[in-house]
Amino acid sequence: MAENDVIEDRKKFYNEKHGSEINGCELKKSSIQSDFEKMILHFSPELIAVSCLSVDFSFAINFLRPFKQKYHIPIIFGGIHAILMPDGVLNSGISDFVCIGEGENSFPDLLAVLDKGESPKQ
After folding, report:
1. Which of 1, 17, 88, 94 is deepest in the core (most CB within 10 A)?
2. Is the pLDDT of residue 74 over 80?
3. What would the 3-class secondary structure string for 10-43 be?
4. In a 3-state reduction of DSSP, which class is residue 87?
5. Could you confirm whether domain 44-115 is CATH 3.40.50.280?
């Protein structure tokens, strides 16, 4: 499958109605937005961590925008898109932090700093 085909297939996946079947995957019949909001209300997260590819970034910021506005939960982006375009991720208005490199090493440090109520260094 060519790169453009993968991108178009991914866009199609995100635009499909719930309850549809795409590439053998049956999508849930409930709204992913309402499911995500239920998770926020149940877990009361202090931080949302997102890892995404460039092809998923637009979906991620559009999906998270209403939750960011409503709940004001800090969001950190990691993954290849954040590594390649950290300024674009920060300028999206959704991401508070960007993880560049291996999150296994830096993410616990960020959590410790935030837990102390301190501001992380750049």
Report:
1. 94
2. yes
3. HHHHHHCCCCCEECCEECCCCCHHHHHHHHHHHH
4. helix
5. yes
